[in-house]
Structures are given as structure tokens and as C-alpha cells.
Fold:
Amino acid sequence: MRLFAKSVNLQEEAGFKSRVYQASELQKLVPHINAEGLEGGLFGPNDGFLDPYQMCTFLAEKVRARGGEIRQFSGIVSVKRRQGGYTLETAKGAINCDIVINAAGAWAPAVAGLFGQSLYICPERHEAIVIHLDQPLAYTMPMVMDLVNGQGSGLNFRHEKRDELIAEIHKVGSRVPEDPDNYNDQCEEGSKVRLAELLLDRLPELPGARLGRGWAGLYPISADHRPLVGPIDPSEPTLVTAAGAGGYGIQLGPVIGQMAADWALHGAPVSAPGTEILAPTTGRNAPPGSSD
Structure:
């Protein structure tokens, strides 16, 4: 709750509204919630959520409108350093470039390896599932997340459509890195059972709720759970890494993109002084778990 109060102050300074709610007040926000075992919550009435697919489509349109080119399904086969830049051999031909930014998410370590660099990112498998409702709720279910500083059940859910929620357990049972080219992208049965148990406990009176389709994706996690942004090798400043944002990439993407551009063009994150601490130094670019 102290962290929540601190967050309210930070948001107010930035011009955003939020407030701390006691457990007895939570049903004002979520009428169906069972607040037993909770101390309270934090809510911002002006908050929303981003649709990653729509966001990427929007950004792609902006890139094309400015004369940029986007090549999809062009996996990198090999790389070659040349005078003043690089040649990337892809599945759809060669690309000559002056600057390379490795923002390949769960594939970022493999891309770094093509350049002879070591990047320590753990692709963590996370699962989500659709919750169907027999009838629409009379209110919009806000994003509810039971995860503070790694504690709590990890359950989170929100409205997706009038008669549909999306839910996730924001914790993983295994810390073993997944192979992004070969992992189970479907929700496992054990996860469905666990999710159903958590939902029954937190939303016991939700009318006609039933599990629908599920899926899994990968969160690229760094050792200290913060993004790695900057050159791995200071002697090669035009090869910039932008990886390890975990499950928050869509939120952190704008500032990470600006930082990566600054590193590439100016050799430092001049637009956001102080963010040099996110550079992939030897101390930070380490196997996950080594900083624990």
C-alpha cells in the first residue's frame, strides 16, 4: 500500500489521476470481486490498455508514410561486417545498412550470436485465456492485476469484448528458457485448472463464466528484469541492442525506441539523460539469476 501511495504521487506529478482504494472500497470498481485477503488497490480512472497488434500496425503505417520500408518474414541467415556498416543476408535477399538495432525480443540472443556477441535474455513462457460470459456485464471490468513486487497470485484479467474477458496468471512455473522457434504456444491443461481456481476465488459470483481458447507467448527477461538498451560492445557503437523489456515491451517501447535511436545516432541516450544505466554492460548483461 505504501508503494501504491508513492505511485499516486508520481502520477500526479506527471499529470495523471489515480487513487488508493481500501479493500472495502474495491467493489465500487469491480462489483463481482471478492476482496477477502486483499489490503486494497490502486486505480487510475483515465487509464486504458493498448492492443499490441493495432499499435504495431499503426506504427508500421507511420514508418511507410515517412518513406521507410518494412520487410516481413525475412529471417536473418547470416551477417557480414563491411566498411562503414553491415550486410545482412536474409531469407529475401541481402540488406546493406549503416546501423543495426537488435530489437528481436525472444530472438534477440540468437541475432546477437550472429554478430559474435553474447546477449543474456531468458524467453519466459506466459499463458493467457479467454473467459466467455453468458451475458454482458453491466459495467466495464477494469484491468485487475494481483501482482505487486512479484507477490500475490499473479492473476490478472480485464474486459476484451462486452461478453468476454481475457485472463492470465502473471507467474510462471518454470524459469527454464524456451526456444522461441520451438515452444508450446497453447495454454496447458494444468494452467487452465489453476486459472479457473484463481478466478473462482476472486470472482466467485461472475455469471456464466467459462474458459475459452488459450495461448502462450514469450516474455524476454533480463537478469535484473530491466531492459538492455545500448551497444554490447562499446567499440561497435552502430550495433545497438534494445531487448529484455519482459511483458512490458508495448508500454516501454516508445522510450526504448528513442533511447536506441539516440545510441545509434549520438552515442548516448541524449533525449533521456540518466538512462545510461540501462546499457548492456558486463555487469547487467549476465545470465538471468546471476543478480539474485
